Fold this sequence. Notes:
Low-confidence stretches: none
Strand order of the largest sheet: 2-1-3-4-5
CATH class of the largest domain: Alpha Beta
Distance between the termini: 34 Å
Shape: globular
Number of strands: 12
Number of domains: 2
CATH architecture of the largest domain: 3-Layer(aba) Sandwich
Amino acid sequence: MSKVLLLEDDPSLAKSLMKYLSTHHYEVDWAKDGEEAVDMCYETPYSLYLFDINVPLINGIDLLSLLREADDFTPTIIISALVDIESVTKGFIAGADDYIKKPFDPEELLVRIKAKTASLKEKLKYKVYEVDVQLNTVSKNGKALSIGEVQKNILIALVKNYPNPVTKDELMLLLENPTDLALRVNMSKLKKNLGIEIQNIRGVGYKII
Length: 209
């Protein structure tokens, strides 16, 4: 049974989600504020985090940033009533894997949860490369790959989505200075250094082939 940490300060929503997810074989721990969630994250290994943003003491985005800085790459879905592009962008920059806007259909959330937890069952492989989703690392023929952090994260995103493309907007969030030129340069470096084929899907993004 997959174990989920829910950070939510609305008791009614939290209890209904816990009941719903338990019927689908997910064990859910509930944190009512950010500090309680911090303690629970460090005490218990989870398969997935569900974080609201506007919660007491430490908000969901700040908490996620702290966890990522501590090398905790547990898949995270943000659930929030904040629907403006700035909030959504901040969530992904902090390290969120998905973002669902309140109010939402529990069935839609379940589909997204299944998509994120399913990827934990095995390491992802592409030709001679292997991605460890939990550790956020890449190896080649069993040996750790030595490339820059930005290119590593781009490669991981491409492998995770293979054979589908990664959107340009998603890739931009992985860059330190997001520009079209910077993205093209990083793609060229990956192709040259690793000898992999990367295709530009006009109007969509990039994919490995």
